Amino acid sequence: MSTSPVIVALDFPNEKTALALVSQLEPSLCRLKVGKELFTRLGPAFVEKLVGKGFDVFLDLKFHDIPNTVAAACDAAADLGVWMMNLHASGGRKMMEAAVDRLSTKAHKPRLIAVTILTSLGEEDLHEIGFAGTPGQNVLRLASLAESSGLDGVVCSPLEAAAIREQAAEDFLLVTPGVRPVSASLDDQKRVMTPADAMAAGSSYLVIGRPVTAAPNPLEALKDIHASL
Ligand code: C5P
Questions:
Q1: Which fold has domain 6-228?
Q2: Digitized pLDDT (tens) for each residue of the chain, 229 residues in all
Q3: Which ligand 1 atom lies nearest to the CA of residue 119?
Q4: Cβ(135) – ligand 1 distance below 6 Å
Q5: S-S: 202 plus which of 57, 63, 64, 161, CB 3.0-4.6 Å?
Q6: How far is the CA of 24 from the centre of ligand 1 (A)?
Q7: Which pTM was predicted?
């Protein structure tokens, strides 16, 4: 298993481009995140291929369904050998507890984390779907619900990390995208932190895509990020 806090987001449209990048990386220097696009195109075999190459894989499928269905999906993901997976905390306590219970029966038990409030949702969007309060208040409430439901952590913005860290147990995992090395382009991210600042704010793992995947030399970019920590 890797000791790196960096999770490289494999946001590629096909296997060829994804594997071209992976062949330039090393399991000791990063973990890999597979999301809905790549998984829907390439399926479980691709995930198993990455695991077979020695990488810790974060399967970012954000499950949200009735408890029995989510528990079964988590069981299936565990069988792929993934290191981490996630679901939506808004699926509720019963859904999260069913997933935790099911994973506790597995010989290989991946970490299970929750998405609280998608960062694409503003206060008005939340009110429209019936969530009172600010995005920040909802993030803290759902992070607390995820923790008391037995989850290992949450995905959050590095700007929310310090507030969640304050209310959560020390070993509660905070996995933060929206991270940009000082020299990197912001791309379409608006509110970012540097890797070092995100770690200082309480992040456990940094999800980093384009600063590595679009770099002329991805391995050098990864090493530079490690050197900055
Ligand atoms: O290329 P970049 O570093 O912006 O990639 C960030 C990754 O983290 C992408 O896979 C993106 O979908 C994901 N993500 C995010 N912001 C969130 C949740 C997930 O950027 N709030």
A1: TIM Barrel (3.20.20)
A2: 789 999 999 999 999 999 999 999 999 999 999 999 999 999 999 999 999 999 999 999 999 999 999 999 999 999 999 999 999 999 999 999 999 999 999 999 999 999 999 988 999 999 999 999 999 999 999 999 999 999 999 999 999 999 999 999 999 999 999 999 998 889 988 888 999 999 999 999 999 999 999 999 999 999 999 999 9
A3: 21
A4: no
A5: 161
A6: 21
A7: 0.96
Domain ranges of the chain: 6-228
Does the annotation count 94 as an active-site position?
A: no
For ligand 1, the distance from its centroid to the CA atom of residue 60, given in whole angstroms, is 11
Close Cβ partners of 182 (under 8 Å, ≥ 6 residues apart): 194, 228
> Looking at ligand 1, which residue's alpha carbon is closest to its atom 21?
119
Measured by CA distance, the residue closest to atom 19 of ligand 1 is 177
DSSP string, 10-31: ---SSHHHHHHHHTT--TTT-E
